[in-house]
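Target chain:
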Amino acid sequence: MPLDVPIINMSFQLKISFLFVSVCFLSSYAKDNVPQQEPVDSAIFYYNKVIKPNSKSDLLQAFVYYKNKKDENLKQLDTLNAIYNLRQIALIQNKLGMLYDSETSAIEALNQEFPELKIIVYSIEDRIQRVRRLINEHGVKGYVCKGRRGLIELSEAVNAVFDNNLYLSDQVNQALHKKSNLEIDDFDVLLLKHLSNGLSQDQISLLFKEQNISPNSLSTIEKRLNKLRIQFKANNAIHLVAIVKDLGLI
């Protein structure tokens, strides 16, 4: 009987030792495998906001970050990183539903990476001011509107641009002519879109500041809307929105 006691004690000690080692191992494993949160304002931090956004606010914050980075890259003549940041901006705009802005960012990235590339845009957008801007500011060589003749015109555009000619669909041919009184720029379109969605002037001003869109002061927005009311002979903001919608401007 006495001989059994040391054996029992040794077995108990071994169990305790094994348990202690197991706990230490699991604690060390858990510590090593806890997801490390990326530092705020790091590239990975904003990359994750774009890839897996939890809210619209995540995308807006990432938009401001990448836009500022892109501007810094261009000042430093860092074309490669500017292209990357433009691609991220295009992705964010697409996720925010800003499809046409996304197209513009993609074109800007192409121009940076392939300066000699001749770009043809194939789009459902037929606003003259947008087409004029793509031609004058981004060097687009062709603009084809989607429709029943879209693919035929796209083929014509490829041939025309290959021969160093500019090609525009009939719907947007006026983009080469002098700007008319009924045309508005992209800022006005964005302003009127937010107004048509029920945002107040104060809310639009705050939203523009969040998105780093200029001008964004309340006084500037008030003056811009007053100018548009006079331009379109509208009695009030509701009447203005109705007129520009009827004209297909928004």
